[in-house]
Specification:
Blueprint lengths: L2 E4 L6 E5 L5 E5 L3 H14 L7 E2 L18 H12 L7 H11 L19 H14 L9 H15 L2 H9 L3 H13 L4 H15 L8 H12 L2 H17 L3 H15 L9 H13 L1 H6 L6 H17 L2 H13 L2 H11 L5 H18 L3 H16 L5 H10 L41 H6 L1
Parallel strand pairs: 1-4
Antiparallel strand pairs: 1-2, 2-3
Helix pairs in contact: 2-3, 2-4, 3-5, 4-5, 4-7, 5-8, 6-9, 8-11, 10-11, 10-12, 11-14, 14-15, 14-17, 16-17
């Protein structure tokens, strides 16, 4: 697959473009939830170039077949076109041609070759980034398709090693990207918001090989340093969860939170920013529990990873608050039912059960009071139809001898040592699929 077209004029229509030229169109009453699961599964299968856009690709813009990557000269020329547009071409057309020729996973020829008269790729990428963010385009009057294309072009540039490092190395680039991000989020357009969040995810977690962990730590610190900015992202996230819309936006936000809070990615997150973001997410714990009922399995697993981080890394009061919400929102009984009664040999179902089993262990650890109240309430509700007040009193008297509540049970701290404060985090292998765990192989690796 080359890309997924999420049609803007029809809320149920989407198309899949293949590299061999075929385009298949489908319709779904819950389109975004389906696309969130589809994108997550395709990336986990190894296709890092899959992406979602508003309008079909103009295949005539590509200088070569889609089945083969373009050569180094084509990439260099399109990087130069971003700086100086050729005669007769608008900047919008230049960006569309750039996106048609450059892979979504980043530039293939992004490192300067060790030969005579070799072109400096790092300088060329940095100049293209500055030209793209400094372009005098008014986002208030620009067409949504053009704004989405600009952020997808930024995503392609920062996915390369030079572009990833330029975010903090080039003076003024971080502020200019941040300004464009804030303006784009005020458009309240789902396609633009998703493109922005996907680009921010590429700045949080490197999408290239042979990356530097110190550079990743620096990028995370730069993005998470503004508490107001993080609050704005979480507000957009909470709004879509409460409305039951924007599954792609929810999935991209969960990716962002996964890269910031969940192991092994949290090893490069500064401790101060980690605690601030953890507390901001804990305040919206009820929103996270709502996602466990979401029809998209990718979102359910992403919410489980974030909840696991909240219980393991949060303070004792945060863990207790999450355990209370697990009962009040019905997440613990639902997960217990899935864990005990789901019978399938499908690897995807087994992966989900494995994640749910870990979540149940965290939710029920030293939480005898809540579980006992839940069970006793269920027993009383069933027995009240057949017995009177005397029998119910017997249940209440037997509560003190209930086997689920041993006397003086100490709280077991299973959170383990926190590793996010390391100054020199260990070298880790790049994750499979660059997304959340969407297959048994990816989950076991993490």
């Amino acid at each position: 697959m080359f890309c997924i077209v999420r049609h803007a004029e029809n809320p149920q229509l989407f198309g899949i473009e293949f590299i061999k030229g075929q385009t298949r169109t489908y319709s779904s009453t819950d389109r975004d939830s389906l696309l969130a699961t589809l994108v997550d599964g395709i990336r986990a299968a190894g296709n890092r170039d899959i992406h979602v856009k508003m309008f079909p690709t103009k295949r005539g813009y590509r200088l070569g077949p889609f089945t083969l990557p373009v050569d180094e000269e084509v990439e260099s020329q399109h990087l130069k076109f971003l700086q100086i547009s050729p005669g007769g071409m608008t900047f919008s057309e230049v960006v569309q041609r750039f996106n048609s020729n450059i892979s979504y996973s980043g530039l293939l020829h992004a490192v300067t070759q060790d030969r005579l008269f070799a072109e400096n790729k790092e300088r060329l990428i940095n100049s293209a980034l500055l030209a793209l963010v400094e372009r005098d385009t008014d986002l208030d009057v620009s067409h949504p398709e053009d704004i989405e294309a600009q952020f997808q072009a930024l995503r392609r540039l920062v996915a390369s090693k030079a572009g990833f490092a330029a975010f903090t190395a080039v003076p003024g680039l971080r502020e200019k990207i941040g300004s464009r991000v804030v303006k784009a989020l005020t458009k309240n357009n789902d396609a633009i918001t998703y493109a922005v969040l996907d680009m921010l995810g590429a700045l949080m977690q490197p999408m290239h090989d042979d990356y530097d962990l110190r550079q990743e730590q620096s990028n995370k610190a730069s993005l998470m340093s503004s508490k107001k900015f993080m609050e704005g992202l979480l507000e957009v996230f909470a709004t879509h969860v409460e409305r039951g819309s924007g599954a792609l936006i929810i999935s991209a936000t969960l990716d962002f939170l996964t890269f910031a809070l969940c192991a092994p990615y949290s090893e490069t997150t500064d401790g101060t920013f980690f605690d601030e973001l953890l507390e901001m997410v804990a305040v919206r714990g009820r929103i996270i529990f709502r996602l466990f009922q979401h029809p998209s399995m990718a979102i359910v697993k992403g919410a489980g990873l974030v909840m696991k981080a909240l219980i393991e890394e949060g303070e004792e009061d945060v863990a207790t608050r999450m355990q209370d919400l697990a009962l009040s929102e019905g997440a613990l009984p639902k997960h217990l039912h899935i864990s005990l009664y789901t019978q399938s040999q499908d690897s995807r179902v087994l992966t989900n059960r494995c994640a749910i089993n870990q979540t149940i262990q965290l939710k029920s650890c030293s939480f005898y009071n809540g579980i006992e109240c839940l069970l006793l309430q269920s027993i009383e509700s069933d027995s009240s139809r057949a017995v009177g007040d005397r029998q119910r009193g017997g249940h209440a008297a037997a509560a003190s001898l209930h086997p689920l509540r041993p006397a003086a049970v100490p709280r077991i701290d299973r959170r383990g040592p926190r590793t996010r404060h390391r100054q020199n985090p260990p070298k880790r292998q790049p994750p499979v699929g660059r997304g959340r765990c969407s297959s048994a192989a990816t989950y076991s690796q993490r």
